[in-house]
Design goal:
Blueprint lengths: L8 E5 L5 H10 L3 E6 L2 H11 L2 E4 L5 H8 L4 E4 L6 H11 L2 E4 L5 H4 L2 H7 L2 E3 L8 H15 L3 E13 L16 H7 L4 E5 L2 E5 L9 E3 L7 E5 L6 H4 L7 E9 L2 H10 L9 H5 L6 H9 L6 H11 L5 H14 L14 H12 L8 E12 L15 E3 L4 E3 L10 E12 L11 H19 L6 E3 L4 H13 L5 E8 L1
Parallel strand pairs: 1-2, 1-4, 2-3, 4-5, 5-6, 6-17, 7-12
Antiparallel strand pairs: 7-13, 8-9, 10-11, 11-12, 13-16, 14-15, 16-18
Helix pairs in contact: 1-16, 3-4, 7-17, 12-13
């Protein structure tokens, strides 16, 4: 990254877990960082750590937002994605550049002509997923295409999880922010291509679609599709691909547990009569009785109703999930958090209390792309079995032994994998693995917008090697890199 003439100024909207590593990198590079949050104390807490300037700001107040945007060179919007159009409109009015880690939404795309007319850059989708996933997907696809090859299959899974030793609860999951968004995402429908056919999974069956998925044998992962993968045939320029799946990773046991929560009515977002009308402290078993419609709140009746509504693979799975319900207190007289009117919000309050990271516990982020590749000569790959060191060219697998090259049909499977753990060292500023892998790419992209490396006017995402290659090089300097490996299977 080029040195910046004179101190540049960046306004970061939001003070969550992504803001800290982003602000820390920018401040360390000599950028004047302004941290804006609805509540001043949160902005002060982050600003004090990185030597920034705290600001109390409500982004829905256009006049206040314009006043702060006008003072800086780039706005980094880390607020919920529904507010990005408000931020972009302010940037248009003030002719300032913007960076976000969010997917480009239809509402953002509607502003593209105004963005171009203002001559500003709005760089998006530059975190982990989306972000680093795009960088390494485009890299491999571009390499294969330039060599005349084809991508037959593209499968990509990503997950933010507790490290294995910290996955010590019935969900094998912990929350560093509100569980609500995580649980809502588990009810989204999914669409993808599989073996040339479009497949759709309705939201209520998403968890049932999860399957075991091996990245490293030491991890007990399951994978399920995430939202709509079909646009990536065009976005990644792989019309030849017969399979395109982008999805999420969790530990085994997670989908089955969540499915029983769904079956029991806990993920319902509608106001519930007991929660709305009660003027007294309500216990969890009374809430569960109301959701299930049982005669009593005795555990025996509640378990019988759950068993009737849900499918369990075997007795061991049933026992495990019911033990998880007990661990959460759902069969007990434990009081729910008052003032919440929906089953979802009531459950989220309990999950947030019981499933936080403890001191010195690590989180983990993992991403893997898996490509099936056909080379330009029509061969899947050419190889000769050997234990010697071998290299891959566009057309053949070449053994560095004295043996002659023999052409055998094998299919190249190339993976691109990133695994990151947080550092629990109490002497260091606590930064989660997910926060680092979203915040650092965001900050690097912001530096590139500041120094003009990224300067094309419009609503951008990292889909072009001209943008991506410098980003990957800079991220590697920060220890962030996907590791590529190649294996083969006979066809």
């Amino acid at each position: 990254m080029a040195d910046l003439p004179d101190p540049k100024k960046v306004l970061i909207l939001g003070a969550g877990m992504v803001a800290l590593p982003a602000a820390n990198l920018l401040s360390g590079a000599g950028v004047d960082v302004f941290i804006a949050c609805r509540t001043l104390d949160r902005a002060e807490g982050l600003s004090n750590r990185i030597g920034g300037t705290p600001i109390a700001l409500d982004v829905t107040n256009a006049d206040d937002l314009d006043r702060e945007v006008a003072k800086v060179d780039v706005v980094v919007s880390l607020v919920p994605y529904t507010w990005h159009p408000l931020v972009i409109r302010s940037a248009i009015r003030n002719k300032k550049n913007v960076v976000t880690t969010s997917y480009v939404s239809p509402a953002m795309l509607e502003l593209e002509e105004e963005v171009k007319a203002a001559g500003i850059t709005v760089m998006n989708e530059i975190g982990l997923d989306p972000g680093i996933d795009h960088l390494y997907a485009v890299k491999v696809i571009d390499e294969v295409h330039r060599a005349g090859g084809k991508i037959l299959s593209f499968v990509s899974y990503c997950g933010g999880l507790p490290a294995p030793e910290a996955s010590d609860n019935p969900l094998g999951y912990k929350f560093s922010w509100s569980p609500r968004g995580v649980l809502l995402a588990l009810q989204n429908s999914a669409k993808y291509y599989k073996d040339g056919k479009m497949q759709e999974v309705p939201g209520q069956k998403l968890m049932a679609s999860a399957q075991p998925y091996i990245i490293y044998p030491g991890f007990a992962f399951v994978a399920y599709p995430n939202r709509d993968s079909t646009p990536y045939k065009e976005r990644y320029n792989i019309p030849e691909a017969h399979t395109i799946i982008r999805g999420s990773l969790r530990y085994q046991g997670f989908p089955e547990f969540v499915q029983v929560l769904v079956d029991s009515g806990f993920l319902n977002q509608d106001e519930h009569k007991l929660l709305v009308s009660s003027d007294r402290a309500v216990g969890w078993k009374e809430v569960l009785q109301s959701l299930l419609g049982t005669r009593t709140s005795d555990e025996e009746d509640l378990v019988s109703a759950i068993t009737a509504k849900s499918h369990f693979r075997d007795a061991a799975e049933k026992d495990r999930i019911l033990a998880g319900f007990r661990w959460l207190g759902l069969f007990s007289d434990d009081k729910i958090t008052p003032g919440l009117k929906t089953p979802l919000d009531t459950l989220c309050a309990t999950l947030e209390q019981k499933m936080q990271y403890g001191p010195m516990e690590r989180d983990m982020a993992i991403l893997q792309h898996r490509f099936e590749i056909e080379h330009s000569d029509g061969k899947k790959v050419s190889c000769f079995p050997t234990t010697r060191t071998c290299t891959v060219s566009a057309r053949s697998f070449v053994c560095t032994s004295s043996l002659a090259l023999i052409q055998v049909d094998k299919q190249e499977i190339r993976t691109s994998t990133l695994l990151e753990y947080s550092d629990p060292d109490p002497e260091k500023v606590p930064i989660s693995a997910m926060g680092r892998l979203v915040g650092i790419p965001c900050a690097v992209a912001t530096m590139f917008v500041l120094d003009g490396t990224i300067s094309t006017p419009g609503i951008l995402a990292p889909m072009d090697p001209k943008i991506n290659d410098p980003l990957m090089k800079a991220l590697k300097e920060h220890g962030i890199e996907c590791i590529e490996k190649t294996t083969y299977k006979e066809t």
